[in-house]
Amino acid sequence: MDTNLPQSPLWDSLRSEQKYLQTNSLLRHRYCLDSAQGTHVSRQSQSFLSFCSNDYLGLANHPALIDSVGALAKQWGVGSGASHLVCGHSQEHEALEQDLATFVGMPRALFFSNGYMANLGVISALVGRTDAVFSDRLNHASINDACVLSRAQCKRYRHNDMSQLAFLLANTRARRRLIVSDAVFSMDGDQAHMTQLLALADEFDAWLFVDDAHGFGVLGDKGQGILEPAQRTHPRLIYMATLGKAAGVFGAFVAARAELIELLMQRARTYIYTTALPSLLAGVVRESLQRIEKGTALRQQLQANIGQFKRGMASLLSCSTRVDQPYAWYLLPSETAIQPLVIGDNETTLHVADALSQRGILVPAIRPPTVPQGKARLRVSFSAAHGAADVERLLEALGSIQGQSH
Ligand SMILES: Cc1ncc(COP(=O)(O)O)c(C=O)c1O
């Protein structure tokens, strides 16, 4: 931090905040890549094997998607010029929304700039002061922020605790009720209980808003995400997925009944008051959707990587879930591409991430407030573009670091 900042209580408060972050190993850094995104990236001309990205299918740098950009830019230019409701909405956006709705098997879809804005827009459009949101404690930060923005009462239930959710729903007098859950929890990798959530939405006349940022493209036989075919037409369901993770591009969409999407177009401020994403990006997402649909082999490779890692870690830790020993390393029980290895305290977690990077491997150290105090972790994320040798290299490195720390 700049040491020449003027002396005053205002600047002192900033300095002490920075100092707090530093002393508690909570400072975050960003590293500048000098390569495209991928399982092998380069930083300051040094090559690393990366387990950091949400590019689960390896599409972010796919030649077919890259090739599509030139023609799309020629047709649509690079900027959209205005918001969707002014004059920024093109046939490419329109076609993407139709493709997305068809792909997830829901009546209509609305294309947003990103997942954060979709969450802010949908939640604050649907509920207000006289209403209540029921939100899983481990939901993404954007959902928590959306609840605050909406001014609705926010009731957070224990992670995946359907009995507590039922209790809270039974004891509310709110005009409108909105249940909100991540589909795949972004820092734990486990999944929401969709059948029970939908049943509770029915029982208590609520909407269910599901954020499938980490399931879309990965779960389901064609990558349609967490929803089972029969759930996709559930009238109370509002589905959101992002397009910057498995889809490898950028953006997000919300799918639901047509009348709900119509209302979002009228009320979702993060849809109305922002410049539309360039049409060329919408076109690249359409190309990506085709890859996702035909991506069975990619999803199989991803599953193989996850399985190899889980088996390797189970033998490394001798038991894969040691939740009873808070400061021993343990792997959270996740079946998805997000494999969290809980280390415990912030400093040790940073130390392990650093030791991996010295071995040429990048894995992010996730610390509070993103995860609870004492549950700092390495968030290992897999891609279909990883191979068995990559997973083996990670396991060996973790084994040698663990051996040294005991
Ligand atoms: C569960 C979840 N929802 C929403 C978002 C935000 O999506 P986006 O990156 O498109 O803004 C993220 C991103 O990390 C996420 O993990």
Folded structure, characterized:
By secondary structure, the protein is of the alpha/beta class. The chain folds into two domains: 27-57 and 295-405, Alpha-Beta Complex (Aspartate Aminotransferase, domain 1), CATH 3.90.1150.10; 79-293, 3-Layer(aba) Sandwich (Aspartate Aminotransferase, domain 2), CATH 3.40.640.10. The chain contains 14 helices and 14 strands. The protein has helices spanning 9-23, 63-76, 84-88, 91-104, 115-126, 141-150, 162-170, 194-203, 258-267, 269-272, 279-293, 296-317, 346-358, 388-405, and strands at 40-43, 46-50, 108-112, 132-136, 153-157, 177-182, 207-211, 237-242, 252-256, 330-331, 338-344, 361-362, 365-366, 376-381. Strands 3-9-8-7-6-4-5 form a seven-stranded mixed β-sheet, with helices on both faces. A four-stranded antiparallel β-sheet has the order 10-11-14-13, with helices on one face. Helix 6 (141-150) links the parallel strand 4 and strand 5. The longest helix is centred in the last third of the chain and has 22 residues, at 296-317. It binds pyridoxal-5'-phosphate. Pyridoxal-5'-phosphate binds at residues 114-116, 119, 140, 142, 182, 186, 211, 213, 242, 244, 252.
